[in-house]
Amino acid sequence: MNILKQKNWKISENEVTDESLFEQRRDFLKLGAAALVSSSVVAEKLAAVESTKRASLQFTKTSFGKDLELNSFDQASTYNNFYEFSLNKEDPAKLAHTLKPNPWEIEISGEVERPMYIDLQDILASYPLEERIYRFRCVEGWSMVVPWIGVTLAHILKKAKPTSKAKYVQFITELDPEMFPDQKRGIFGNVPYPYVEGLRIDEAMNDLTFMAVGMYGKVLPNQNGAPIRLVVPWKYGFKSIKSIVSIELVEEEPLNTWQQINPKEYGFYANVNPEVDHPRWSQAKERKLGSFFKAKTLMFNGYEKDVGHMYKYMDLRKFY
Ligand code: MTE
Fold first, then answer.
1. How far is the CA of 67 from the centre of ligand 1 (A)?
2. What's the whole-model pTM score?
3. What is the CATH number of the domain that holds 133?
């Protein structure tokens, strides 16, 4: 087992949390039982302040998406799908302070010559981070344009040396009910946890497939999948699994969470496709966060020339 563990770059809490927030925390503790303000309101306020005090990252800019019009940080960080916190899109920004993104380790296992644990700090320290502006299209019909910061998944996978048996890659989100309140509800929760996703090996190795550790110049806010998430811009957003702790290279196609919940409506591939409707709504158009009007959805979310070849001989109605 190859364990990469030199920690020569750290985010200290002072970098993430400014002094006024420390003061607010102290005041919060002083409030005690006699507080007039309910503790949940204070916790929400602290979480909101905290999410604006994220550590900056060093990265190189790229030409990906340079002509796209960005959504604002507020739009992208206050309207989230993160069921481990809530089904309500406004809730993750208020509740995600329970997620502790540091320390964090990802296990890479399965069909690889060099199984390993990678510490998040090693990714931040030893991989050259780049910024990529991508379109992001949710299966529900909303979209956004976000400047992600991270590394290609291929870069990480190559270190582990996938064997010839590695046909698919399975990703798993951390299972820790102390961090993710909906996981406490067990089978009565909204989703069978842990959240699982998968890609075919060629999709995983495609240059567009990105492991994001940041957005808008700084580390990811918890509600967007801190400390590390997948971003697959030509697929519906549910494929872009958050807060990943396991990457396993496997021979068989993994059963992803949404396929498990409702296989008639959600498939393994989930490629953005304006011509294949969801059984309950059209996928021809989308509403970008903050826009009043809908715009036409693009084939493969506008990335056809980079990814179309991978699906050339596939019936995209069958492999939805
Ligand atoms: N990952 C986990 N672990 N849990 C989730 O609920 N939601 C998915 C995806 N990744 C989800 C997840 C869905 S449905 C979408 S649309 C995107 O995350 C939303 O990402 P965002 O909140 O950064 O916009």
1. 25
2. 0.86
3. 3.90.420.10
